[in-house]
Amino acid sequence: MEDWAQRILSGDVRAMARAATAIENRTPQAVPLLKELFPHTGRALILGITGPPGAGKSTLADQLARSLRGENISIAIIAVDPSSPFSGGAILGDRIRMQGHHGDAGVFIRSMATRGHMGGLARGTLEMALMLDAAGREVILIETVGVGQDEVEIARLADVTAVVLVPGMGDDIQAIKAGIMEIADLFVINKADQPGAARLEQELHAMLSIAPNSHGRQIPILKTVASEGQGIAEALAAMRAVKARVRRDGAQLWQLRLRELLRERLLDLFPPGDLEAAAREVAERRVDPYTVVEQWIARLAQ
User: Fold this and answer.
1) Where are the alpha helices (DSSP H) in the chain?
2) pTM, 2 dp
3) Mean pLDDT rounded to a whole number for the chain
4) What is the pLDDT of residue 53?
5) Closest CA to 185 of 225, 241, 254
C-alpha cells in the first residue's frame, strides 16, 4: 500500500488509473490508500462545471484544459457520465469529445458513471478528486452529468463552481428551479453568438439582484463560444479571481463532505438485498419506515 501511494505521489499515471478503478469500484484497498494519500491533499484548484444538458460543458472543459496546458499546468478531468443501461458503466461521450488530449501526460481524464447517484456527481467523486490532488495535479476539472435539476453536490466539492447556460433553452427558469443561484460562483453563457444571449445575461443580472442568498456576492457573468475558443481566457481568469476572492470555510466545507461520506459508508454496511426486502415490507404496509430505521441503528450499535 505504501509503495502504491508513493507511485501516485510521484505522478505515476498507471498507479493513478489503478487507484481510480479501485475508488470507483469501492474495493477494500481504496480506503487504506486514501488514508495514505490524504496528508498530501489540499493543493489543487478544483473547478466544478455544471449546467443543463446541451449547454456545452464538455466543450468548455476541453477548452479550459487546452488553455491550462498552454501554461504548462498539469490537470485532471473527472467527467461524470450517465450510466449505461446495459453494463452500468459510464457512457464515454465526454472522453470521446476530449480526444485532443490523448497522449498528453499532463492531462489525466477519467469518466465516472453515476450508477443511480443523484446530484450530478458519481459516488466516489470526492475520493477521486483527493487522489488526483495528492498525485500533484494542479487543477482538477469536474464536469457534472447534466441532469439540470439537482446538481448541487458539486458545491460541496469544488473551490469554484461555474454554471454553464445557453440561450434559448429556458435556462433562466432552470436556474431558479435548481437553486443554482445559491451554488454558482460564476455564470458562463456559452454559445453566446446565438440569438438571446444578451437577454439571458439581463435576466441573470435581474435574478442576482433579488436572490435572497447572494449576501452581496458579486457573481461574474461571462460569455463564451467554447466551440470556437472564444472567451476561454476571460472565463479562466474569472475563475481564478473568484478563488482568490472567495475564502471558503474549510471546516464548514468538510462538514458537508463528512456528512456525505458517512451516509455512503452507512449504506455500504447494508447488503442491497436487505434494503430491497425492507422497502418491499414498507411498501406493503407490513412495517413502518421508522421502525425499520430504528432496527438498523440498533444493529449497527451491536
Assistant:
1) 2-9, 13-25, 30-37, 57-70, 93-97, 125-134, 154-157, 171-178, 180-183, 197-210, 232-245, 250-268, 272-283, 289-301
2) 0.83
3) 83
4) 80
5) 241
Cell of residue 225, nine digits: 463560444
Given a cut of 50, whether residue 86 has pLDDT beyond it is no
2-255 classified as CATH 3.40.50.300: yes
- Give the largest Cα separation in the chain, rounded: 63
Q: Report the alpha-carbon distance of residue 220 to residue 237 in Å, rounded.
A: 11
**Domain boundaries of the chain, sorted by first residue:** 2-255, 269-301
Give 78-129 as a DSSP string: EEEEPBPTTTSSB-THHHHHTGGGTT-TTEEEEEEE-TT--SSS-TTHHHHH
48 to 14, 172, 198, 264, 292: CA distances (angstroms): 25, 20, 24, 21, 37
Return the pLDDT at 175: 53
Q: Given this model, what pLDDT does residue 260 score?
A: 80
Q: What is the pLDDT of residues 251-278, one digit of tens each?
A: 888 888 888 888 888 888 888 888 899 9
